[in-house]
Specification:
It is a single chain. The chain has about 300 residues and is of the alpha/beta class. The strands form two sheets. Strands 1, 2, 3, 4, 5 and 8 form a six-stranded parallel beta sheet that branches. A two-stranded parallel ribbon has the order 6-7. The longest helix is centred in the middle third of the chain and has 19 residues. The radius of gyration is 18 Å and the shape is globular.
Length: about 300
Amino acid sequence: MSLHHHILAATYYPIKLAKAIGRPLGLIHENQLRVLLYHDIDPRDQANFAAQMRWLQRSWNFVSAEQFADMVSGHEPIRGRNLLLAFDDGFASNRVVAEEVLNPMGIKALFFVMSYFVDLEDVDEVRHFIAKNIYPGTHAAGLPAHWRTMGWADLEALLQQGHSIGGHTRTHARLSQIKNEPDLEREIIASADALEQRLGVPIEHFAYTFGDLASFSDQALAVARRRFRFIYSGLRGDNVGGVSPYALRRDSAAFQDAFSNYSVFSNSLLGAFLEGAADFKYADDIARLSSWARQI
């Protein structure tokens, strides 16, 4: 881990202790609603991932996408510490993890996928797509050997198992770089329509790609808002206190660095993020994104 990650990890237990003391005194708000985001889970790390989920279950209540939507919309009260599990991009490992880890634990996740990526069947095409669109600047030959995409049958199986599917653009485009509205509509709206028509379920959740505010725009948000009830960023933070459903926050968890063999997020580091230790770094971007959501 980097030095600042070590420092953040060291704050976990002091923050947790301070909150445990502060809650009964009314100094700390006891209700939380956060989204925890993963991408691919390397098969070699599946057991460690399962252990991390069991660790989280001891202090968090995992909620489904439907429960999260009800809480954000105000249809269901937010009580206690609630966590929605999400996966971006649609890597083939997602179905494996769902069936072998999440289902036995009763955890329902929300999977954000790209319609064009799901359509790819040729292995070489998949790997070139990943190198060009998901991890631009990398080379297909250097990607992890297990990286594949889920197909339509995989998404249908996840739905049958009680999980949810969300939109993640058509080609993993960086939306801030698209100024032409028909192109934005193709990436955001048409891609979700394709998922909905093929899967036969409403696609109401959308996560824009790359997650940082520089990769989004008020123009893209306006287009997405016409199509989706819920729009997710990659900005860390809690989703209580009247957060706009068009400016939702998520905590990214890089379980393992994609191009090395060391674990990036220890339980202590992940716990520190979920306790809000780094939320202050995202306050300005969250305020700007929320401003876009109010003005549109």
